[in-house]
Amino acid sequence: MTTASLSSELRDLYTEETARIQQQFAATGDGRSAVQQRTRLVETITRRLWQEIVSPDEHAPTGFTLAALGGFGRSWLFPHSDVDILFLHAGKDSDARFQDHIRRFSQEMWDLRMKVSPATRTLAECDRFDASNVEFTISLLDCRYLAGDRELFERLHNRVIPKLVMREAQPLVQSLADVTRSRHAKYGNTVFHLEPNVKDGPGGLRDYNVAGWLSLISAMDKLRDWPDPKTLLPFSTRKQFDSALDFLMSVRCFLHLRQGRDDNLLLWESQDEAAARKIGCPDTEVIDAAGWMRVYFGQARSVHRVCTQLLEEIPAAWSSLYRQFQQWRSRLSNADFSVVDGLVYLQQPHALHDPEMLLRMFHFIAMHGLRLSTTTEYRIEQVLPSLAATPPRGAELWLYLGEILTQPHAADALRAMHALKLLTLLLPELKLIDALVVRDFYHRFTVDEHSFVAIESLHRLQPSQSEWDQRYSQLLSELERPELLYLALLLHDVGKGTPSTHHVQASLEIAQSSLARLDLDPSERETVLFLIGSHLEISATLRRDIFDPATIRVFAEKMETHERLKMLTLLTYADIKAVNPDALTPWKAENVFQLYIAAFNYLNHSVDERLEADSDDSHLAQIRMLVPTAGKKLKSFLEGLPKRYLAAYSATDVLAHAEMAGKLGQDPIQVQLERGRHWFELTLVTNDRPFLFATLAGVLAAWGMNIVKANAFSNQAAVVVDTFYFTDRFRTLELNLQEWERFKRSIVGVLMGETDLDRMLRDRLRSEKPGIAKVKVDTKIDFDDTCSARSTLVQVIAQDRPGLLHRISSSLSQEKCNIEIALIDTEGQMAIDVFYLTSHGEKLQPEHQQRIRSALLQSLESD
Amino acid sequence: MTKVEAIIQTSKLEAVKDALHEAGVEGMTVLEVRGHGRQKGHTEFYRGREYTVDLIPKIKLEMILADALVEKVVQAIVTAARTGKIGDGKIFLSKIDEAIRIRNDERGEGAL
After folding, report:
1. Contact A820, A794 (CB under 8 A)
2. B15 touching A, CB under 8 A?
3. Is the pLDDT of residue A363 over 60?
4. CA angle at A156 for the pair A151 and A160, rounded to the nearest 5°
5. For residue A246, what pLDDT band results from cuts at 50, 70 and 90?
6. What are the tens digits of pLDDT across the range A384-408?
7. ipTM beyond 0.90?
8. Has residue B44 got a pLDDT over 70?
9. Neighbouring residues of A253: CB distance < 8 A, sequence distance ≥ 6
10. What's residue A329's pLDDT?
11. Do A547 and B47 touch (CB under 8 A)?
12. Which of A158, A194, A312, A616 is buried most, with the most CB atoms less than 10 Å from its CB?
């Protein structure tokens, strides 16, 4: 037969058979059968060409062999996959002898419109490991005989490859792991893309191959020979893996045929069609595209899980550096969990029946960034049904969940909980967004993954070196209750899982039941709901003119407090950043921060607007609703307090303060001491008197307490509510409960003039050596007469040190100033104290301001 | 053909986009930019530090139009973006020699 007539015959065969395979796939949707049939078809063609071009005897000539590599070697030829072949010859002399055959053979294949990737090597070349071309050595792992010298092929397969793998196992595995990790990183390390790549994306077919190669190299290294492929993975994993492979093969075949090229992107239009045709899941009920994508994510998640577990386990066995790292991680083992090769195992598997142990395990993962071992995952899956009958809830669940959310690897822990369906068991509302695809042109991930990425992006702020990340990181470090922000991020988009067109409103409604399940107290609940309800507020404001004071006023008044403003700024940052890697442009990051600063300053400069107790403020309405009978007493307490007072305290706190104020007739100094999550909280309600704020600050300094924040407010009747938030530097209160009473008595004693504060302070300062400041902060004093109608604002920035607030406030009192409001804050070693001052009910005159400045400077510099 | 470049306030993007669609503009490029003209910047104090905003965020729109449409589009932008204050922005017009549609090599106004 002439080459021309053979070409024509093979072209007809290829065209007809390809059409038949396509038709069969269209009818059955069976991807595995389609790739096998195409593999057989290409095999037939390559053998015919071999007989025509190289040798009429399919198994000749000696010293020259044709082998299938890569996907062709695995018998996985997708409709538009490359055809990888190897021309193997015995030595350099034969290279020239077969050169023309190789050229003609490849030409014929290309003329048939096959994308052939030919490689020509000797046995010695195959035996050489080239770190810059790991792909070739990996492709040898799937090599398969096609035609030519079988003995030569068997030398490659049975001797060269096993020896090569045993000799180069470590660099081979390391390179494979590195390539895989960087491929995963390119796809954001997540399966949950709205338009995933079914070949190269995490959980795609490439991950399936990587899992197979890692297991194969590991087994070959142990057996010193080719292992039985059926023994490579545990039975349970293999079954799950096979099902995933069938599904992914069908999807990739579908995409190739639909697009008419090697295109593996599962775009929205393809998803619609795949769902309508039930590609990969013919036995399921009729499903929409979102439902079909959930099936896809389920399969991809199982492939990705096994692949990443093997990526932790196998490289560790060879690399000494990795070994050291893993050994360092194994030191994290404790009485409950052991860490081996970065995977977590249970010390006492039966203990897992205790839900607390289960939550502690995810807290452990969130803290250290580890993965669960397959065994541990299996054990968790076993206990889930019994846990489902009585899932943990209430304060206990919130205690653990809050702790998990604030740990540096919280997102990893949440993903692991979600993959095992534990997260939706604890918070069933999240089922609404489980692997949910919501189509828009901006989001890259499914809704659940978007929430995890948002949480992750806040945790990544701290180690980041970028200018913007550091600014936002500073805000994060200043939050009193970061766990509330993280919880809001977890729930902020749950409404997208409902048919509602207003997802913010829907999220708010759904989040109510999550918060009730977690038994959050009313103020916590209010904060989380505020964040969810306002999560688009900053983006909306950025569409206004943020240099217009009216825009800032409206926005800042919605925020009410600095804390809420900080939380919402961070939530917005994380929410935008989690949309896709390019969504948070420096332009946007700067605009968000610009808005934050403007609103922050507005809140600082407008805090002394007075409250009218009869107004229809929403906080007032809530308080009146809580205690309808409090009416008159409450009104007289609230009258004249600054508006900021209501924003700074919860309704319950306000009622407690009103009650304390009501008891002043019996006991003129009401003191309340509580221990919060991060610091102690001292509230004092009493009638105003000179030096009150300074005296309180002094008592705290004398007890060695470090004042972190403070608020001071007074009403029309000169009743003062002062709150100090402090840390207990010497653990006096923390370790000695009996000291609480002595502490409170000492405050009363000093205020009543029965105890000498100066002596207390001298004793304290004598026992303390002055510390060396790590960062030098220059003292800065600024007055502002314009920001308030009735007070002068003074902002003092100074090096933080024990007794600082006492010094400042004493100087102000000595200068006959009345402290209307004090906003005390600390940022690292910098104290930022803002006071609203009056003198005889008026703003301060310029000469008075000058005297105060001198007094403050003298006091602060006299060390 | 004319290239229209318009620098406008960020808050006016939606209004200008609507006006351009109304005027018959089918495609445009929107860029997030920073800069200043006579408006200059301003300084905020935050936590005792100066925070200077010398480059103000703006939106830049770019579009290539058939000459017949240019005046109508300019009027649409001016009407939608104007507040009467400093900082409303500017419009620049320049001549374009040729436009080529990559898909089919179509040239001239037909390629727009």
Report:
1. no
2. no
3. yes
4. 135
5. very high
6. 999 998 899 999 999 999 999 999 9
7. no
8. no
9. A25, A31, A34, A35, A78, A79
10. 67
11. no
12. A194
Averaged confidence pLDDT in chain A: 88
Strand duo A83-89 + A64-68: pairing: antiparallel
Helix (H) or strand (E) holding B5, with range, is: strand B2-9
Q: What are the Cα distances from residue A799, in Å, to A334, A377, A646, A689, A830?
A: 41, 51, 31, 28, 5
For residue A165, give the 3-state DSSP assignment: helix
Report which residue type is found at A270: S
Q: Is B102 exposed, middle or buried (0-12, 13-18, 19+ CB in 10 A)?
A: exposed
Query: Would you call A543 and B11 a contact, using CB atoms and an 8 Å cutoff?
Result: yes
Question: What domains, with CATH codes, occur in chain A?
Answer: 3-183 (3.30.460.10), 433-604 (no CATH), 657-861 (no CATH)
- How many angstroms from the chain centroid is the CA of residue A88? 49
C-alpha to C-alpha distance for B55 and A565, rounded to whole angstroms: 24
Which residues are CB-contacts of A84 (< 8 A; sequence separation ≥ 6)? Answer: A68, A69, A70, A71, A72, A73, A117, A119, A139
According to DSSP, the residues that pair with A342 across neighbouring strands are none
* CA–CA gap between residue A593 and residue A570 (Å, rounded): 10
- Name the strand (E) or helix (H) holding A683: strand A680-687
Inter-chain touch B48–A590, beta carbons under 8 Å: no
Report CA torsion sign: A52, A55, A60, A62.
negative
Examine residue A56 and say whether the peptide bond preceding it is cis (omega within 30 degrees of 0): no
B48, B53, B87: residue with CB nearest A594: B53
Backbone angles phi, psi at B60, to 5 degrees: -115, 130
Which amino acid is located at A585 in the chain? T
Q: How would you class A196 by CB atoms within 10 Å of its CB: exposed for 0-12, middle for 13-18, buried for 19 or more? A: buried
Specify the pairing of strand A343-346 against strand A371-372: parallel
Contact status, residue A203 vs residue A300, Cβ threshold 8 Å: yes
**Pairing between strand A830-838 and A337-340?**
unpaired
Indicate yes or no: CB of A597 within 8 angstroms of CB of B46. yes
Write the pLDDT tens digit of every residue in A90-110: 876 766 788 888 999 999 999
The DSSP code sequence of A791-835 is -EEEEEEEE--TTHHHHHHHHHHHTT-EEEEEEEEEETTEEEEEE
**Pairwise CA distance, residues A382 & A352, whole Å:** 10
Q: Do B57 and A830 touch (CB under 8 A)?
A: no
Both tokens of residue A5?
């007539």
- Alpha-carbon span A47 to A56, nearest angstrom: 10
Domain borders along chain B are: 2-111
What is the distance between the terminal CA atoms of chain B, rounded to a whole angstrom? Answer: 9
Give the integer Cα–Cα distance in Å for A230 and A239: 11
The strand pair at B42-46 and A116-122 is best described as unpaired
Structure-token pair, residue B12: 């006016």
A795 reaches B (C-beta below 8 A): yes
Q: How many CB atoms lie within 10 A of CB A414?
A: 26
Cα A780 from chain centre: 39
In this complex, the residue of B42, B47, B57 whose CB is nearest that of residue A832 is: B47
In contact, A639 and A670? CB cutoff 8 Å:
no
- Domain B2-111 coded CATH 3.30.70.120: yes
B53 and chain A in contact, CB less than 8 A = yes
Half-sphere exposure of residue A681, counting CA atoms within 13 Å on the CB side? 12
Return the structure tokens found at A136: 């070739």
Question: Does residue B79 sit at the A interface (CB-CB below 8 Å)?
Answer: no
Of A306, A309, A376, the residue nearest A347 (C-alpha): A376
As given in the structure block, the two tokens for residue A108 are 């014929």
- Chain A residues whose beta carbon lies within 8 Å of the beta carbon of residue B56: 547
